[in-house]
Amino acid sequence: MKRRGLFLIVVVMLFCSFTVAYGAETIKIGALYTMTGRGGQYGKDSEVAIKMAVDEVNAKGLPGGAKLEVIITDDKNPQYAVSVAKRYISDEKVKFLFGIISSAIGLAVTEVSKEQKVIFIGTDHAATDLTANKFQKYYFRSANNTFQSMMAGAMYLKDEVKGWKKIAYIGPDYAYGRDQWMELKWGLDKLGVKYQVVGEYWPKLYEPDYTSYITAIMKAAPDILVSGFWGGDTVSFIKQAKPYKLFEKMKYFHVDAGGNYEALAALGGDMPAGIILSARHHNNWPDTQANKAYVQKFYKAAGRYPSYAAEGAYVGIHMIAEAIRKVGNANDTEALVKAMEGMKVQCPEDPSGFTSYIDPKTHQIVQVQAIGVTVKNAKFPPAKYMLGNLKVYPADKLWPSFEYIDYLTKQKGK
Fold this sequence. Notes:
It is built from 14 helices and 15 strands. The chain is an alpha/beta fold. The protein folds into 2 domains: about 25-145 and about 285-365, Rossmann fold (3-Layer(aba) Sandwich), CATH 3.40.50.2300; about 145-280 and about 370-414, Rossmann fold. Strands 7-6-8-9-10-14-15 form a 7-stranded mixed β-sheet. Strand 9, helix 10 and strand 10 (about 275) form a beta-alpha-beta unit. Helix 2 (about 40-60) runs parallel beside helix 12 (about 310-325), helix 3 runs parallel beside helix 4 (about 105-115) and helix 8 crosses helix 10 (about 260-265). The longest helix has 21 residues, at about 1-20. It starts with a helix and ends with a helix.
């Protein structure tokens, strides 16, 4: 009888091992990215970075032998993205929503996340609304928002640019563009900087011809032109403005997305020297082994260097994996939310001695920011310029700012 009992125990153990090995759960993540047009490179780079991160996570392992699987769909527009997000949840049974480049689409999909109580990791879009007046507890962001960029920008204008007074702004006419201008002015005011606004210009997203805006800006003659473009719009504006010698007549200041690698690469030798830019990830900074390894791994996988969007996607997958490891499964959404709040997240862009983390009150990743100027550097072809003379701003000076969240909520409520 004892031998028979022992035999049954061994059989049960073997059956359980077989189930773990061959019946492990597949945890689905439903991603939405722009894959075509001016923003298409961001989606393609995010796809490469997602595969890198998923391979790393699955190789390391998750509880119960679970594996991550990511489904990617072109998001197209807010209405279409909402329909895909709902289908992901109802038909594909995804545990997480993920991605999105445009803030307009992110703002639409966060409502689906809230309604369906499914965690949404925003990896790219940067409008502060999503972590402020539109905040909901199932939303987390794995890249910096516009407030962090613009607060660093306000400090840069105060300390690094001398003798300016007149300022103008041009940016896309939706939340992402509007928030940047509001945040920069708020930051300058908090720092006691005196300035005069001589123009505000609001072209639509993907505007084909900026000529009328360029001539109006030249006539207004600001000392500083602040830009809130991203992606192909940045490239188009710079190409169209260069023949007018705009960059010789004023300081061009573009610190949320102006220094994105794909813009540096697309412009090549046409990139003006000495313009003030930044981005959410830099291929040549910080000069750490972690960042070098990430950049080279991406290059090996894609045959090109990564735009900033790739890092947000890469980090977002590792955030999900770490939360699953802490909770032990991907089925307890409320426990996963708690696991992500305050989570430390080692990012390629983290300088030595600092680790990014998720602010528990806003679910916004908190990161160091670096702003520089374009200098000749051909180490990351086809770019001919990269950012140099970088000024680095500590994370705790940029976020959180609940005073600003209260201000933004009141402004958007008017």
